[in-house]
User: Fold this.
Amino acid sequence: MNLASIQAAESKLLLQTYERNPYLFVSGQGVYLRDENGQDYLDLLSGIGVSALGYAHPAVEEAIVRQSTRLIHTSNLFFHEGTAELALRLTEISGLDRVFLCNSGTEAWEAALKLSRAHTGRLRGEGRNIGSKFLALEHSFHGRSMGSVATTHKEKYREPFQPVMPGVEFVRFNDVADLRAKFSDEICAICIEPVQGEGGIHPISRKFFEAARELCDSTGALLLADEIQCGFGRTGKWFAYQHYGILPDVTTLAKPIANGIPMGAVLCTNNAAQAITPGMHGTTFGGGPLACAVAIAVIDTIKRDNLLEHIQDTGEFFHGELSKLAARHDCIVDVRGIGLMLGLELNSAELAKQVAAQLMDRRIIVNRTSETVLRFLPPYILERKHIETAVKALDEIVSAAYAGAAPAGEQSHG
Ligand SMILES: Cc1ncc(COP(=O)(O)O)c(C=O)c1O
Assistant:
């Protein structure tokens, strides 16, 4: 089937959840995706922060082949060889104690919310006075299931599905006074993304993070750090919270863990983990042998190839080049982000649309989020030469911006 016939078939057969861009990718190599005509595209989005080691990475291929010819699934009723090996690595890199493995970001976040409620139940059982409400942040994004949309700020994600989970209040981003005013012993958890992704690449402030930690400590509420987009090396440290020297009680991972094989994870302290006993929570596929084998290979490759240092280095270079561009063009109003999680904010949504579309015309993949922000979440193996190509293209496009280009639909679907 070619692109046109696939488009026609999908428009009749699929639930219309996405407005896909009209490109058909058939393979990938390194940081490039190849379309059905054999054209290569420099991928600065990596499947929305998923293909951390890029495409056709030998370590990933080897793990998939080795494990898929041995064992793909056992269910969580039995042991297999990968779970403990992966949990050892995840606890070592995170500083947290225990792991729950699942299949996606929203499933991990949902488990973190349930864990918070169960933790509250345990504290109440010990005679402590603590409520069951959540504080989440304005411009947050936590996923698409009912608890996740309830803690997601944008109205458009919640409104069609009302009533979503009640008991969530939103705090103004980085507003410590608002956080303090809304926090009380009614709160069972504070939900944050250390670097907001869908919200437009906004790192949380140190003061806000510290205040959230202090408030949770004062009542026994849990501090939940959603690192589904910003975690697992993306910012140049394994976890974005490590830039702040603050340990949350719970963190969630998904996107890049298994380089595209679906996987999510919840990591938590021993204290928080006490609330969960057998039968309270589960998943059929979560933590299966195939996903575990690939995740182990990804972690070992990131370590072996010193990719965290590489991300810090290329991320700084990328940030610097974008900042130089911003200094030359008034229409670029901000450059934000850490490591290889970067955002370039333009002064209008229309311009951001045009620039994203024209980059695509030049076979460079980025995405637009929060209307005006071009988002870069490239594979960790990106090199300086790729950044130079992208920044040169951006410079030319922005310079000629008002000559106009066909707008592309917004594609910010996390
Ligand atoms: C911070 C954050 N949390 C949760 C999710 C949901 O993850 P998934 O799409 O795997 O359910 C996303 C997806 O973009 C995300 O960026």
